[in-house]
Design goal:
The protein is built from 6 helices and 3 strands. It is mainly alpha-helical. Strands 1-2-3 form a 3-stranded parallel β-sheet. The radius of gyration is 15 Å and the shape is globular.
Length: 129
């Protein structure tokens, strides 16, 4: 579920999440973080991803005890698609460099356990790999 701009807030999805407790809902972008945390605390079927989520917001979600339902998000290929629509020529190494820097930044502020949950272990729970 897209969150983070007009008419796309986590609270907008509250009744849908409540009415379908057996369905997992992922709040993309986790914005605004206070609403995301509130929804995740109320509903165990509410998860969040980190696509375009500031590191400080990721830390807040984890500090709220929700590290087990937070997933790495990138917004690719959409990010690439919109860059091309805007006429940007993107070097093929750009996204690789961008995400390596982002992961290094996140890794530097999270415990190893929380980092592993974020970047791969939590996804295993949803996709049952």
């Amino acid at each position: 579920m897209h969150t983070g701009n007009d008419h796309c807030y986590p609270d907008d999805y509250k009744s849908l999440i409540a009415e379908h407790p057996d369905q997992i809902f992922i709040l993309a972008h986790s914005r605004p973080v206070d609403q995301t945390i509130s929804i995740m605390k109320q509903y165990s079927n509410a998860w969040a991803d980190t696509a375009f989520t500031p590191t400080e917001d990721i830390q807040q979600i984890i500090a709220a005890g929700l590290a087990d339902r937070l997933m790495w998000g990138t917004d690719l290929p959409l990010m690439s698609y919109y860059d091309q629509l805007r006429g940007k020529q993107i070097d093929e190494d750009y996204y690789l460099t961008y995400y390596h820097c982002l992961l290094d930044s996140i890794r530097s502020v999270l415990s190893t356990d929380d980092y592993e949950k974020l970047v791969w272990r939590n996804a295993l729970k949803i996709f049952k790999i």
